[in-house]
Amino acid sequence: MLFHRSHSHVAELIRQYETETGEVVPRRGNVHDIGRTVTHKRIICRLAYREGKPTHLIAKETCHSPEAVDHYILNFARVHFATVPRNMTPEQTAFAIQLPLSFVQEYVKLIAEFGMDEQQVYNRVGVDFTLADNEITPTLPREKDHSEGREQEPMAG
Predict the structure, then answer these.
(1) Residue-number span of the structural domain to which 2 is assigned
(2) Same structural domain for residues 15 and 69?
(3) 10 Å Cβ neighbour count for 59?
(4) What is the pTM of this model?
């Protein structure tokens, strides 16, 4: 109202700014990760998979807990595993990993955009691969616990 601009025009300006700068303008929807606003999935997965940043830095940069960051990273890997090597449809994937279809579709878009192979994706979550009968099977290493591969924050001292 102050600038005599419509809500849609302001929203478009914000999206344009976020795309150009890579920064997130804090709004209720994206701060609380609710509604149909810009989600943190894209930002967190880009920082994790494309830039290789550790969980604690991503958490700090995006104002998320390390557990929330790992949740996004692991869901990316789960969707990748179901849709790429297993050729599951987004609908089948949503059922199999118990995520809403719209979330799966967002991750599928990110997977296509990032163009990563299995090893790049699963290295991030600490998964090893075995090849048997011409099929790749992911397995968690025995020495790791099931904390979803989150890096530990460096200790001060």
Answers:
(1) 1-38
(2) no
(3) 21
(4) 0.64
